[in-house]
Amino acid sequence: MKNKFTFIDLFAGIGGFKMALTQNGGSCIGFSEVSKDAINAYCKNHNIEPESNFGDIKKIKSLPTHDVLTAGVPCQSWSIAGKNLGFDDDRGQLWNDTIYLLNQSKPKVFIFENVKGLVDPRNKKALSYILKRIEKAGYYANFFVINSQDYGVAQNRIRIYIIGFNDKKYFDKFVLPKPLENKVTLANVLEFDISPKIDFPPLTKDLFGNVIQSKQMSLSSKNGFNDYFLFNDLRNGHTTIHSWDIEDTTKRQKEICLLLLKNRRKSQFGPLDGNPLSLKQFRSLDPSISKKELCKLIDLKIIKKIEYKFEILNFQDSDLTKEELKLLNLASNNYLTIDSLKTDRSLKIKRISISDTINSLVSKQAIKCVEERFDFKNTKISSGLNRVSRIFMPTSDVFPTLVASDTNDYISLKSIIPTTHEEYKKKFLKEIYFTNKFRKITKEEACSIQGFPKNFILPSSRARWMKLIGNSVSVPVIDMLIKSIISTGVFNQLINRKETNTTKHNKIYT
C-alpha cells in the first residue's frame, strides 16, 4: 500500500497530530491521554471511541505494531539521571516513558514535539541525553526549531520537533520545506471585517537614508509602525502605553514618570534590572522634585513607596526563626538593603520570601526601616496594565503564542490609519482603548490560529478551551512534517506484519 501508514498518538491532547496524519493517509491505532476534557474533545471531533485510549503513559507496558509514533511531550523539568541508562530502570519521567515505548514498539518513524526551552543552553544536557537515548533505541534523528508562522499559521509559536527514522536511508532523504512565501495573517482568521484596507505611510528615513525603526521590539510592523500596543511602565517605545497615558495626569507628572523610567535601570542606582529611587536620587536628576509630588503619583496608583534599607537593632536569637536569622546574616555594616537580598542566590534556593521575612523582623523589632524609595506600582511586564498586556491591531501579521493559561492579549476591533508615531498612539487611545473597542480572541479564532476548524468542539468555559488549544500542536506544521516524511518513500513498501497484540487496541480508527 503506497503512502498508507498506521500511527499511535501519545500525549494526544485534542488531536493535532491525529488530524494532520489522518489527512495524509494515516490510520490511528490508538492514543494516550489523561485529561478528561482532552479525551472528550479528541473522541467527539475525530469520531473515535474512548476505548482506543491507552490511558496514562506511565502505565503502558507495550504498544501494538504501528508505523509512526507521535508525542507532544509535556514540558517539564528534565531530570537526566538514569541509573545505568537502561530502558526499564527510569520509568515515570515523561520523556523516558516516551522513549521506552519507542524502543519497545520500533515504529518506522517518530515525531516528538516540545517547547523551545529544550534547546536553551541551560537544557543542553537534557537535550543531549534525550538524543542519546533515541540513538540507543536504534534511530537516526535530528531536531528542528520551527515557528508555526512559517507554515500556514497566524501565530508566533516556536517549538522543537525531534524526528527520527529507523532506517538511515530515509533519514538522509528527509528535509524541511522552505517557509511559505504567502503567509496566513491575523486578518485571515478574524471573525469581523477590518476594511477598509490600511495603506501604511512610507518608511521614515534619516538623512543618510536609513530606515528609522520603532524603539519597541515588535512581532511585526508595517513601514516602521508596530502592529500592536504594549501596556507597561517599565519600557518605552512608539506604541507603548503607560499608566500616565491612561490616568488623568499633568505634564509635570508625566515628566517625573519618564524620569524614573529612563533612570531606574542605570547601575548608579543599584544592581537590579530595575531599581527604586530615593527622593535624594530623584533630586540628583531634578532638584525641584518634591516628596509631595511623588505622593500624588502614589495616590494615582502609578508609583509605590518601598521600604528599602533597614538598620539592625538588638534582638535575641531565640526569638527568631531560621529564615529570619539567615536574612540577618546577609547584613553589611549592620544594614540590610532590598537589592542585596534580591541578588542573593541562597535565598532563592531555600525559597525564603524576602518580603514576608522582612515584615516579620520589623514586627519583632529586630530591624527598622531607615530609607524609603519609589518605584512603579506595576513592575511585571507580562501582567500589563489594568489586565491588558497587549492589544493587537487587526492588520497584524501574527498573534502571540497561545498558551494554556491564557494571556492578557487582545485584538482591536478596528484599524486606524497611522500618520506619525505620536498621532498613531493618540488615535489608538481615543478611538480604541478609551472606547473599549477591543476584545480577547474567540474560541473559533483560537482554533483557526492553531489550524483547527472553526467548528471544532471544545468546552464552553474559556479557561478550559484555552487550556486545550494552548497545549496543542499547530496542525499545519504537523501536516508539513508528515508530508516531508512521506516524500522520503518510507511508506512506499510496507510489508505485511504479523500483529503481536490481539487486544482491543489493535482496531484501526480512521
Question: Biggest sheet, open or closed, and with what strands and sense?
Answer: 6 strands, mixed
Number of strands: 18
> How many structurally independent domains?
3
- The oligomeric status of these chains comes to single chain
CATH A-level architecture of the largest domain: 3-Layer(aba) Sandwich
Structural overview:
Helices cover 30% and strands 17% of the residues. The protein is an alpha/beta fold. The chain has three domains: 5-183 and 449-506, Rossmann fold (3-Layer(aba) Sandwich), CATH 3.40.50.150; 193-241 and 385-441, no CATH class; 249-376, no CATH class. The strands form five sheets. A six-stranded mixed sheet has the order 2-1-3-4-7-5, with helices on both faces. 35% of the residues are buried. The model is unreliable at 78-91, 211-218 and 495-510 (pLDDT under 50).
